[in-house]
Each structure stands twice: as C-alpha cells, then as structure tokens.
C-alpha cells in the first residue's frame, strides 16, 4: 500500500506558530500527516468531507478541528460542497511550544487535556467556534506579534473549555496518543487492545481491576464517556479500519480477525459508525494515498 504524504510545515524554530488564510473553491490537498498540531477553521464549507484517521464526515457551515501526531492522517476534501468562496484558516504549531513542565501548571490543565485529545482529532462545537470567531477572524492580520501570540493562547484556552467537543478517530486506529487516565482504565484498555478479537465480558473486565460489575460499568462510562460494549466495538472497528488501509487482506478475513461473528453484522456495524461500507472506506483511502 502507498504511504500517507508527510507534510513539511513551513515553521521555523523562531516561530511560535504558522498561520495561513486561504479562500478557495476546491479542496485538493491529499491525505497527509505531520508531527505538528494543526487547528483548522473552515467557513462556508458545508458539504466538505473531513477525513481524520478512520472518521469520515461531511462538515456544516462552520468547522473547527484540532489534530496532532504524525500517524494521524487527515484531509479536507471537496465532498458535496459547491460553494465558490470557502474560507480556510490553518494554524500549525510545534509540540515543543508547550513543554511538559508548562503543561503541568494548573493554569494549563485544560489546555493539556485538549492537546492530548488532539491525537485522535478533536472537533469543536458551533457554540465554541462562535466564541472564538472574532479572534480567529483577526489573527492572521495582526501586526503586533506578541499580541498575536496572546490572542492565539486565548483561542486555545477558550476552546479547551468546550464540553461539547468530540474526538473523531478511534483510539485503536490512531497511535502516539497521550493518555493520562486512571491506572484501572488504562489496564482495561491495554487488555482490550491485545484481546479485542476474543469474547470479552463486563464481568471479566470488572474482575481485572478488582471491582464489582455494576460499579465498574459506572466507573468506565464516567471516565471514557462510553460503556464497555461501545468501547469494544470501536476498538474492533479501529483495528479493522487500520487493516483496510494498510493491508490487502480480504474483508471477510478482516471481519473475523477483529472479533466480529459474521460478515453481515460487520458490514452493517461499520457503515452505521463510519458512514461507509468497509469496501467503500478502503477505496476512499486508497484513492487519497500518495507516494512520498
């Protein structure tokens, strides 16, 4: 299979961030990845197709997504968008801009959590977009570089309080994720990451971390936002997506290798949660891959 294009960001060691504003009628940049964080804002782009990891969705009138990590492929494609003047503002910054010593400070705790989630792609709510719209709108044209940096920090801080923001890619598809969750949650996740193709039951996971099943069920949902079954299905789908992208293994074989009991259930579940059949998902990724 071809490799994902690795983009070289025009960001010098002396820059805090790189920002570019474009007006376009066509989205043609291929699926790509890079080590730097990227905050991408799109205005009047209804119908543009966003691809982040194994998440493929059409966006609305406004779009704001934060991505991170050189293994998280992403792209914004034409999709069904017919607008002739779509505005895109892209802000890219190095992981070194916020060293661990700084992110440990109380004032940066919410920003740290947001940056950790960006390794799965983090899509912000319309409410949050409107809250930072004026800052994003004027950021590229600011002449005072220090004031521009302060405005950038303000954008990140405001976005970090968005309780409606949602991650996009499944954790089993993406990699290089910063995970600061509790040891018990990580123990369960580590077990599922290895044994996802096997039969896994709530009672087994509760026993693994020394909790009663009912207490563990509440605990797991409180910390992950999902129940165990949904998390297990997403893990299986993430691994299936990765096999579809990175191998030529047959879809039926992928189905059983990832813990699904029959092909029709696999196809139905994949389409319900990804928006595409496994075959169409593979075709879409293959079309957008380019040789480096």
Question: Would you mind describing this structure in some detail?
Answer:
- The protein is an alpha+beta fold.
- It folds into 2 domains: 5-167, Jelly Rolls (Sandwich), CATH 2.60.120.10; 183-288, Arc Repressor Mutant, subunit A.
- Helix content is 42%, strand content 16%.
- The chain is built from 11 helices and 11 strands.
- The protein has helices at residues 100-103, 109-117, 126-139, 145-160, 183-195, 202-208, 213-224, 228-246, 251-257, 263-274, 278-288; strands spanning 5-6, 18-24, 32-33, 37-43, 49-52, 55-58, 62-67, 74-77, 86-93, 122-123, 166-167.
- The protein has a 6-stranded antiparallel sheet with strand order 2-9-4-7-10-11.
- β5 (49-52) and β6 (55-58) form a beta hairpin.
- α2 packs across α4 (145-160), α3 (126-139) runs antiparallel to α4 and α6 (202-208) crosses α7.
- The longest helix has 19 residues, at 228-246.
- The model has no long low-confidence stretch (mean pLDDT 89).
